[in-house]
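Quick one - inputs below.
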Amino acid sequence: MKNIIHIIILTAMLLVGCKKDFINLLPISTASVDALYKTDKDFQDAVIGCYDILQNQYRTFWQYDLPSDDVRHQWPSEDIRLRLDNFTYQNNEGLFLSSWSNYYGIIFRANTILSNIEGKDVSIIKNKERHIAEAKFLRAFAYFDLVRIFGDIPLVTKVISDDEAHQLGREKVATIYEAIISDLLAAENNLPEKYSGVDVGRVTKGAAKALLGRVYLTNKDFANAETKLKEVTTMGYALLPNYNDLFDYSKNEHHSEYIFDIEYESNLQEGNDFTNSFCPSDAAVQSFYKVNGGTGNSNTPSDGMFLIWENGDLRKQISVARGFTDVNGTYVPLTGAVGAKSFTVKYMTTVTIGGDGKANWKVIRYADVLLMYAEALNENGKTNEALIALNQVRIRAGLQGYSNLTQAVAREYIYLERRLELSFEGHRWFDLVRTGRSIEVLEPIGMKPYMTLFPIPLDQIKIMNNPTIFPQNPGW
Amino acid sequence: MKKNNSVGGLLYHSLKKLLLIMRIAIFLLLVGFLQTQATDIYSQNTKLSISFSNTELVKVLDKIENQSEFYFLYNEKLIDATRKVSIVAKEEGIEDVLKNLFSGTDVEYSIIDRKIILAPAYLSESQQLNKKINGKVTDSSGGSLPGVSVVVKGTTTGVITDNNGNYSLSNIPENATIQFSFVGMKSQEVVVGNNTTINIKLAEETIGIEEVIAIGYGTQKKKDLTGSVGSIDSKEIKDLGVSRIEQALLGKESGVQVKAVSGAPGTALQIRIRGISSISAGADPLYVVDGFPTDNIQTLNPNDIESLDILKDASATAIYGSRGSNGVIIINTKRGKTGKTSISFDMSYGLQKAYDLPAMMSGPELAQYALDGMRNKNIDEGRNVSGRPTTWFYPLPQPQMDVIDGINTTDVQMIDEILRVAPQSQYQLNASGGNENVKYSVSGEYLSQEGIVKNSDFKRYSLRANLDAKLSNRITLKMNLNPSFTDENISDESSSDSYGGYMSASPVNRAQLWPSYFPALDKNGDYFVFSQSEGSQEWNPLAQVNEVVNTRKRARFLGNVIGEYKIFNELKLNVMLGGSFVNTHSMRFEPELLAFAGGGSHNVAYGRDDTSMDLNWITEYTLHYNQSFGKHNLSGLAGFTAQKDRFESNFSSSNRYPNNLIPTLSAVSGIITNGSADISEWSLVSYLSRFTYNYNSRYYLTASIRTDGSSRFGSERKYGFFPSAALAWRISDEDFLKDISLISDMKLRVSYGRTGNNDIGRYEHLATINYDRYTLGGGTVAGYSPGRLSNPFLTWETQDQINSGFDLSLFKNRMSFKVDYFQSKNSNLLLNVNIPATTGFNNTLKNIGEVKNKGWEFMVNTVNLEGVFNWSTDFNISAYKNEVVKLGPTGDPIYSAAGMVSGASITMVGQPIGMFYGFKTDGIFKNQAEVDKGPIFGAGTSAASRPGDYRFVDVNGDGKINNDDQTIMGSPYPDFYYGMTNRFSYKNLSLIITIQGSQGNDILNLAGVGFLNQRGARVLQSATQNNYWKSEQDPGDGNTPRPNDSPKGNNRATSQRYVDTGSFLRVNNMALSYLLPERIAQNLMLSSLRIYINSNNPFTFTKNKTSFNPDVSNSGNPLTPGVSFSDYPLPKVITIGINVGF
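Output:
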């Protein structure tokens, strides 16, 4: 009898004794953050977390081209795409909030990596420098898009709490650029030039240099832009002989002209949905290109886009179309019955399941670098050298090279060439704003002077609720 | 005719089964498996220790009652209870004690089990008076009662029954009423009339025997309660004949809202105690089954339940700490009693049928509606509608034209094709008994309930063995074992939406939308299919109920062992060890069928297999102290308990079936297309204590404290502290009321308590990982990232509640009232709060919200008639008000989606949780003049309102109708709700009628998105739409808009058109039973035989025309109360049964 009592009391005491552990349970089917960021593989995997958001963000990045003059939204529905197209968008659009959240998500993940990797032993974290470089590149990349879209923004360079975030105001654009440049300078030194196998698609030294070049160019720091972009031209990149091959997704997308893409792949639940967005909701087109579901009639070429091509420009056919030539050689024009009267062929590729396209989004390719390089040279007074770079792009397009141009004329031709070469690749709007021509070009179609910056998402303004340090952009 | 046949057939079948089972039972008896024990063992084995000197006899008797299970019955006029006695007994038997007490007096005593009857010896000699009437007085079991006062009412004429309970009385005036009274028994009055013999059976007075209530980690006499506790006992449950225990609560208890939200067999009912006190944590009460806290009572057999006590106020629930704020329901199951083995067998058979289905359009009506809808579409665009409708610019599809032309005369209501009259049956066998050392109660049950939707059913097999063993004078062991198994075929409901893009996955809802001119089967007997151009495509509902396999099997083992160690007479240690193990396997298979091709997200064969197990164990140590010093009574409780749960689940699914032949995943050649597995745990350690004190049962004080530490709480908030205190004052014992005989009891109660809700997820306070993927090198690479911010401050939701109550009993307890008023503040409510995205996240869980509830509860119980004909009534009515005080930092309202309809429920500061949100309507625009007057929707656009479209209320008065005019358009909260139970009995016949009702609330019937959609040909429409606007000259009822294949004027927006009244009055249950006279039963070699007939939901009174059941709330989500999808109709049931005691 006594024994039973003793056992009972003993068990009770044991339970009380270990109660701390008893109620400190860690999750079983998911890991606690503290359990990770320990090994080299951990950091390699953590960087994937950054790319993952980027992949998500770039599904809809094309929408930032909608305000430009290249594209029209040919659908009568009242939604963000139409409002972007005709400059009636509001400060509470979901697009702005998702962009804001996505980019700060990348920044948070990069900061988490950087703070965790600090002080770690290189003998354990073999590729420490590369992980840091990748994280810094991705953080800089996110800030570059953010600053171009929203202007002054909070600068977060470490993991912050909710309370700290509430104290964080908007920093001047110049401060953000300083941070971007510093990250990219650090990144270019430690990124490899090339990857092999399962790493192909990660950011490279060339990507860091090219992005840095674009940043300098955007800041009108043409001297540094020229230097940096020149470095890229010596790294072995080359234009593909055939422009159309850039958009033939049955071929390897990591070719000599590729510098940095956002990667998508079909049949792996890693597909893009912009192929569907670019595909008109026209049954004949969908069936011809084997695209399951055209959700778009967005980002379709404006009428003006058909008028800018020289005869013989090999790029026109794939860039802008009003129909297609079927297997029997018959030309089938778009009926326009469902709205779309034009489309770009650049993203057309077989899509078996809607939203599972395999096309990558090209962020930087070598033709872009050549054109940026030409622009920098021309601004630095080296117009003839600029034309050499520019003409590489023109000749590939089946056109004659330019010669003997004044700096001013060359500038216009370079701008035009960017429009022709890089149409529907997410450049036009930012090029117009960067070069200060946006209002001149777009005011006739509804742009107002304050619209060079998009509004800070209304939700964020409300959550911060502090106009002193976190005001809305003017006009919104 | 058909129905009757099947009843007869099944009755015959059931009788055969009954005989078989009786034979088995008798066999068991014969082999002596159950031993019959003498009845007087208790008195022989019970030892008493008392010591009194010169004390009133009544006190001594009280002490004996308190120390043992004995109770005394006697006539106060004959036994001098104030006589001073002295006695010292140490561990003596009752016989010795009584001998000692009554030696030298004329009092004789007889001990019958625990009952001790005292009577003067002289009664032995039968008194011979002028005989006029005579008779015998017995107790409920037929034992004779000596010493009962038999008095002619209003006179002093009276006699006392003799030792055999006989009496005779003379000189009785005409129309006299005779009163029979005896301490411990309910008094009875009988009108003499022409009778010369009146035999009376007196019922034991429950008040006298002190009804005991479970209060959490202990019991309390009902009269000593300081908190607000309701209770229902086994007798009540037995009479109702319910298949789920929650059904016994319908309409029974004030402050407890019980909704039978779905008619699907085996479905849990929704219980809300004192309103909704949480926004995003759970709102269900905690159940405690034989001391085992659980959230799952799915597998309990209602007939095993002895008592069900509902702890409502926080002073009562605070002892359950962080799990108390939604109320606690304590369920205790039946235990064996000393004495003769009793075996009972119960069998019932019933039929269920859907009732009051909303009326829908007939085939011709729908075709005409479609025609008008198409005409309006053409007219709106200025098209010519003069020719044949099939030649219009937007032509009427051929099938509808065929109906108009009279070529197709099909007129079916698909819902009739998938519903059926469904049988249910229940068998159970119970045996209980025991001796002083071992008591047992064992039972077995089989319940089979077919659903009224074809191919849905629920079966339950359960066993229970409750054992009480007295190991020594100090140690008692109790053991409860409850294995059970349920087997279900499930009909899809809208909440189990796995289809995406569909309004509802429910075949009932789909059947409601199936155009009435399309048959269920085509002329070849295949499932009828129509094309998208002919109507909105959906799964053929008949094919869905017939061909989709959806099963769930669940095995549960629930058991616990309780050791009671009596350290001293006043101090007991209880140790409990318990465990619950639930294993569930579900399976689903959808074959590839044309009938499923209608726009569903998958039209290839699809199968899924789910398994899960839940292991929950508890250990509990409590010390109980009980002591009285003179008039001071105190008790104390201190304890420690620890509980842990582990849940493991996994599923696999595939859409790569080669054919429809094999439904299991074995057929997919190992190509599993989706799958996952998950494990999670929670744990809880608690320290608890309670102190109660009362002075002379007049002044009461109760105080309790519980501390909970849980794995669910953040590291900075690991332990919660939950105190409570209550005071009560029995005013009726005060001198100034003592002599008012009208008042039997009057008590005032006030209490305060703090409780919590820990249903906040399992690891929400920790920063956990999300798994991410990207594609590199042409393949997939896996990565990860932090999934949320850690929140070490995340913790339970807190409820502070005050309660004041007043209890009053009048006329010797024949009428009693109970009023309670409560006010509660629920703070630290868990909300997903928006935070600056610069943190890397858009929101995080924080304890930030606040909700208030206050309400009234009122109960009255009356004994209206007593005697040969008995009638008693219980009535309760409750009202509460819910108000959101605080939401996230920005105070933004929460818009909640139900099904496909987003934002139809709103939770905003200053309003109750989950109000209905949308446009208010003010009839329709009858003509162009009214349209011109406006304001209209979409003025100047092609979507502008036209004559025949809804007139929405311009809430903000800006002359425009747009989204800014959305507002609260209805409330799911009743002004009050009520229930009433009437019990009638006459001789051996008894009838119980329970009603329940709710007044002033609305329901939001989102199924209306389908059948009120005004699009004409697409789906079947409600018959309430028949009087629609046809032209300016024929505007219909002024409320029903015109059909239009392309609706204009925002007609399809979420608006008041989906809001219907939720007020109703329903007769929940009518139970008629007849107990065969003992004599006849004994002739049949039975100890008792009862036959009964029950009817569930026989009558419902409501003005609601659009849903199956006005008492609905589709999901348990606190944010979307009162939403209906018209899923699974609640059936009307009629049951007959027989109960045999051996």
